Amino acid sequence: MGKWRATIEISRHEKLPFSLISKQSDSGDIQFILKNDTEEIVLNKFDINGDSLILPMHIFDTKIVARIDNDQLDGHWTKNYYQDYTLPFHAELGKDHRFEPSENPANFDFSGRWQVEFSDEEKSYPAIGEFKQEGDRVTGSFLTNTGDYRFLEGSLTDNGFRVSTFDGEHAYLFEATPVDSDSIVGKYWSGKTGYYTWKGVRNENAELADPYHLTKIDSEYNVGNIAFPNEFGDTISLRDPEYEGKVVILQILGSWCANCMDETAFLSEWYKNNHERGVEIVGLAFERKDDFNYGASRIKILKERYDIDYEILFAGKHGKSNVQSILPMIEDFRSFPTTIFIDENGKIAKVHAGFSGPGTGEHYREFVKEFNATIDQLLK
Question: Is residue 7, in this structure, part of any structural domain at all?
Answer without folding.
Answer: yes
